[in-house]
Structures are given as structure tokens and as C-alpha cells.
Amino acid sequence: MVGRGYSIFDTAIGRCGVIWSATGVVAVQLPGAREIDTRRRIFQVHPEAREQRPSQNAELAIEGITALLQGGDPDFSEVSLDAGGVPGFNRRVYEFACSIPRGETRTYHEVAKALGASGAAHSVAQAIAKNPYMLIVPCHRVLEAGNYTDRLSPYGGVISKRRLLALEGAQPVASKTLFEVLLPVAPPRAPG
Fold it and tell me: Could you give the residue numbers annotated as active site?
């Protein structure tokens, strides 16, 4: 295969797209309001990509995305990503996002702090907004502190973070870590 390929596929929320290279998945495009909108977005961002049968790696991504959007809990660990052109900090943010368990969330500040860059919450937010690997890298699990937003990156199409989190059984509120700070780890024992 020369260059980049893409494929459009059916999911529970509409027709998604996956773009790949010989190295791995380059991007995931969630559905637009119409399939033509999904295709238009792929052409705008990846004009060199040609529609073709998915590579084995892209097929793994498609199977996982389809399962996730049906409420499943797929394992994307075998899906290779093409991170060429992705800044190092963004890669670190994406790696951390992949470590957030299904059904849990973290804030931009918590991610920055975990990466040893506690003053970089804005940079984390920008990295999340630029995540090309929608769903494979679960950026929907990273939220603004105290102000839940209902939007995704430009690759997000018509689905929202709120809907993705609901599929995972999460409540779109502050992260578990924040609750651990606010509440005691164990309730006090009754005398007895």
C-alpha cells in the first residue's frame, strides 16, 4: 500500500471513517450529520487518502470502534497508531488518556499533574482537542474541571463526550480523583 487509505464503516451512531498508513491508524472520523459530511471532513484533513479495503490494523480499529459504540468494552492495545507529526507532549497526553479506566474521567489539570507538568492544563486541553484517534484514544474521558463540556475535537462529528461517557456507564461529573480529595478515603469507624 502506498500513501494513506481510508474506509467508511457502519456503527450504532452512523457511518464512521478510519484513515491509516503503513505505520498505523492516522485518524478516526466520527459520523457527521450525513455520510457526505463525514467524507468531506476526511478529504479536508487527509486529501491524499484513497478509499480502499481496510488494512488488518485498520480492521482491528473498526471492530473495536463498532463494539465500543454498541456499549462494548473493546481492547485497542493491538491497534497500531501512526504518530508521525504528533508532538511529543500530545503523545504523552494520549498515552495517559488510554490509561484512564472505562467509566472514569479525569480533568485537564489532573492529567497535567500526572504528567509532571501541573501548570499545563491548557496544553492538555489543546492536545485533547487535537486528538486524531477518537475512541481509540479515549479523550472523551478527560474533562474540564467543574465545567463539563459537551463537545469533542474537530474529528468528533455529531456525537458528544456526554453520549460517549453514557455508553461507558460514566456520569459526566468531576473525576474520581477529585472525589477522593473531597471525601475521606474510609468512613470513620463507629465506637464499639
Answer: 139
